[in-house]
Amino acid sequence: MSELRQIVAVILIGLGSLRSRYATAMVIVIGMASVVGVLTSMLSLTSGMTRAYYTPEDARRAVVWAGTANFDQSRSLHRDVIGTILDAPGIARGSDGAPLADAEFLMRLPTLEGFADGELNVRGLSGAGLAMRPAFRVVAGHMFQAGRRELLVGTGALRKFGLGVGGKVQLIDGDWPIVGVFTNGGDILESYLVGDADTIMAATRRHGYAQVMAQLNDAGAYAKFAAWLTENPALAVSVERKTDYDLRQVGSQSAFFTDMAYLIGAIMALGAMFGVVKIMYATVRARTREIGTLRAMGFGAAPVAASVLAEAALLGVVGALLGAALAWLVFDGREMWVWGSFRLHVSANLWALGLLWALVTSLVGGLTPALRAARLPASEALRAA
Amino acid sequence: MSGSDLQTLQIETPVFQEHETASGHTVKFLPLVWSAIWRQRTESLLTLFALTVAFTLFGAMLALNAAYEKAIADARMDRLFVTRRFDGPATLPLGYREQLARIPGVTAVGGQIWFGGHEQDVHHGILIMFVDEGMRAAWPELPLSQADWHALDAMPAGIFLTRKAAARRNARIGGIVTLNTAPGSRADGGTSWYFTVLGVVPDPPGWGQWNPDLIIANMRYWEETSDLQERNGVNTLRVAIDRPEHALAVCRAIETRFTNANPALSCVPARENAQELAEANINMRRISLGIAAAGLFMILFLCANGMAESVRERLWEFGVLKTFGYSDAGLGFLVVLEAAIPTLLAALLGAALARAVDTFIAHLAVTGVINMPEISASSAAFGWALCVALIVALVSSVAPLQRVRRMPVGAVVAGR
Q1: In this complex, do A267 and B86 lie within 8 Å of one another by their Cβ atoms?
Q2: Low-confidence ranges of chain B (pLDDT < 70)
Q3: Residue A98 in contact with residue A129, Cβ under 8 Å?
Q4: What is the pLDDT of residue B5?
Q5: 3-state DSSP call for residue A178?
Q6: Is B98 exposed, middle or buried (0-12, 13-18, 19+ CB in 10 A)?
Q7: How far, in whole angstroms, is CA B258 from its chain's centroid?
Q8: B-chain residues within 8 Å CB-CB of A277?
Q9: Please, which residues have CB within 8 angstroms of residue B33's CB and are 6 or more apart in sequence?
Q10: Among B53, B85, B282, beta carbon nearest to A257
Q11: Are B87 and B384 in contact (CB under 8 A)?
């Protein structure tokens, strides 16, 4: 019998006897399910947050800031420089020939009564800003109009704060009615109210925008666009790829948490690995007679070791699938609010990571028992039984 | 009967002869328990390691949770934060201090203004908090002694750094910390602010959760040096009140008094503010409890399985002990002790190791963007770990004990 066939045969024999070792096998399955369940659940937060901040169009977008004031709440980009910024090369044009670039800002609103645990913000944008967001849809009420006190509420903010059409929020000049509800492909914009930037600025005596968001002709246009702006002596601006800004935003909120997820996943995997070693040693002990018989029949050491490793790996993978499935069932799609609304996402990448995590842990844990099984002398194994 | 079984029996017989002596009861059980634990040394050690790791995680998460709870509890209800109600460019006028001080229940008002720039390059940001004299009474938790306040008075360009802030910059007393800005921050047209380090002070309790570090400077220096347009304003007013239970009423009075002022004011008690921030960020308190629960589940499953396996493999031994007259209670005690010894040992080791994990987590937070409250080793964490270990031992022993209690002694001893 070839080595490969021996390996397959011994693995099948080992797996066949799993039913009689059901309880001990479950220790590996449950342990690994705990490890992968915790890891994927924690990382689903980062995954969901990333999905909320990134949009497919971001690869072709750039953000222009006033100097080092590179945050959404800034008010440092004054109206008189916007025209110059829009003259920069590489900006895509809309169907009307106007540049696809928009001066925008984010403004904090007073805390709503009864909703202390979430910050409500309004994003000021214009027609060009809406044109740059192809997923933007008004799903109830009507679109805000420039020059009027009108705001739309995103579906995330609607769910969080209970604001709907007919509701009002307070700005410094009085109440502003909400005239519509919008969606934007599930991204972070849905956590805010939106309104006409210039109207809001006039009403709140605000003098500056935070940023100009520009749609470029292609990703390659960025270098020239950035150089033109930063080297222009009439401007004191900084430029950033939109994807870099997304990364900065997600990173600032989730980097520590992601590190924590990996640290905890590693600690749990270490504990589970000791469990795997222990269980697989017990398995080898329980299968001593079987192993001795196989060796006496002429089966080699490698197939015996492979069967132990295969059993550990299989149990680990089953545990990983169970853990990831539980994380998916409990957390996937669940809405969270961390400075904005997003949905937890147990992505395919996380499933793959969980499987890999469990597989490596199981194989490392199964290694020494496999070696012990391989080194069992047939005569001794048969006598011990 | 195998050779090893006979050997076990020979060891255990004298124990049986003396086990009815009440005072020596536990002591006489110990060799039996020890031989049971040490029966499969490698596997026992592996179980201990696995349990220790799980208890380490459990302890670390409990300590993390406690640290976040403490950060909120440390934020006091008799301290109020007063800020602008509406988003706007202007700071709060310094004149508001006197008006707030006249509101019933208010005992002290202090102002603070944050001023930021960069140190050696734009990637090394720095934030300085200028505080006024009123903070002595409005924010007595600020870690400045009377001598420190005098030193600030004597040298307005002086600063005090908290330990974290000093360590991050390797700052020493007498050294200079430089803050660079864009043109327009100083009245003299300069762009660099030079501060002399007057001392290093402890990090205020709960402070680290929201800001990486704290550098305290004298507002008088700000008022004398900053651009004229920037003066006479603060970002936040801190208000101390007479009684914590008056917090909401005083806050309402402040907001009402300043409803039509420009800028209008918003007021929140410090504890509520801490709670809101905790809810707005990723909620580590809830998450840490979830992870601790997962660790606990692993511990329980591992231990229960170990005990079930141990009892199953030693049924004959229990049968013999029963034949010799051991009661179910005595055997129960034996099984519980066998489960309790490794779990208690793992709990102690795990709780000690948890401290190292928490230190590493704090390090991750400090080097990252988010900071977190100080995590301190507490006897409560050890206490919880030991309690959990005992409960796990008891729960793990239930099924094996039932098996021992119901086993047909004759058949088991006869090897059937």
Answers
A1: no
A2: 1-28, 89-90, 122-123, 204-212, 280-281, 365-379, 416
A3: no
A4: 44
A5: strand
A6: exposed
A7: 38
A8: 46
A9: B334, B337, B338, B341
A10: B282
A11: no
Q: How many Å from the N-terminal Cα to the C-terminal Cα in chain A?
A: 26
Identify all chain B residues contacting A38, using CB atoms and an 8 Å cutoff.
290-291, 294
Q: Which residue of B has its CA nearest to A106?
A: B87
Question: A268 contacts in B (CB within 8 Å)?
Answer: 53-54, 57, 294-295, 298
Distances (CA, A) of A377 to A205, A373, B42: 87, 9, 20
Residue A313 contacts residue A366 (beta carbons within 8 Å):
yes
* DSSP conformation class of A231: T
Q: Which residues pair with B160 in a beta bridge?
A: B199, B216
Pairwise CA distance, residues A319 & B32, whole Å: 36
List own/partner pairs for A107-112 with CB under 8 A and 24 or more apart.
A107/A73, A107/A200, A107/A204, A107/A206, A107/B87, A108/A73, A108/B87, A109/A169, A109/A170, A109/A171, A109/A193, A109/B87, A110/A170, A110/B85, A110/B86, A110/B266, A111/B266, A112/A161, A112/A163, A112/A169
For residue A343 the two structure tokens come to 């949905």
Neighbours of A368 (CB within 10 A): 16
| Residue of chain A whose alpha carbon sits nearest to that of B370 | A256
**Highest mean pLDDT: which of A206-215, A252-261, B25-34, B68-77?**
A206-215
The Cα of B143 is separated from the nearest Cα of chain A by a number of Å equal to 27
Whether A75 sits inside 8 A of B89 (CB atoms) is yes
Q: Each residue of B264-279: pLDDT tens digit?
A: 899 989 888 777 777 7
With contact defined as beta carbons under 8 Å apart, do A355 and A37 qualify?
no
pLDDT-derived band at A155, boundaries 50, 70, 90 = very high
Q: Distance between CA B205 and CA B298 in Å, rounded?
A: 34
Average pLDDT, chain B: 82
CA distance from start to end of chain B: 12
- Whether B276 has its CB under 8 Å from any CB of chain A: the answer is yes
Task: Using CA atoms of B135, B140, B143, B148 in order, give the dihedral in degrees to the nearest 10.
Answer: 60
| One-letter amino acid for residue A47 of the chain | S
Tell me the pTM: 0.79
Give the separation between CA A352 and CA A22, rounded to whole angstroms. 26
pLDDT band, residue A174 (cuts 50/70/90): confident
Report pLDDT for A205.
83
- Partners of B47 on chain A (C-beta within 8 Å) are 274-275, 278
- Nearest residue of A to residue B263, measured between CA atoms: A172
Check: CB of residue A35 under 8 Å from CB of residue A360.
no
Cα B298 from Cα B34, distance rounded (Å): 24
Whether a cis peptide bond, with omega within 30° of 0, leads into B263 is: yes
Strands B265-269 and B79-84, sheet pairing: antiparallel
Residues 6+ apart with CB under 8 A from A60: A92, A215, A216, A217, A218, A219
CA angle B110, B112, B115 (to 5 degrees): 170
- Minimal Cβ distance to A274: which of B46, B118, B361: B46
Nearest CA-CA distance, residue A188 and chain B, Å:
15
Q: What is the DSSP string of B266-323?
A: EEEEHHHHHHHHHHHS--HHHHHHHHHHHHHHHHHHHHHHHHHHHHHHTHHHHHHHHH
A64 contacts A211 by C-beta, under 8 angstroms: yes
Residue A274 near residue B50 (C-beta atoms within 8 A): yes
Distance separating alpha carbons of residues B157 and B129, to the nearest angstrom: 12
CA distance B33 to A357: 37
Each residue of B358-399: pLDDT tens digit?
888 777 765 443 445 666 666 677 788 889 889 988 998 888
3-class DSSP state of A334: coil
Residue matched to tokens 């729960």: B395
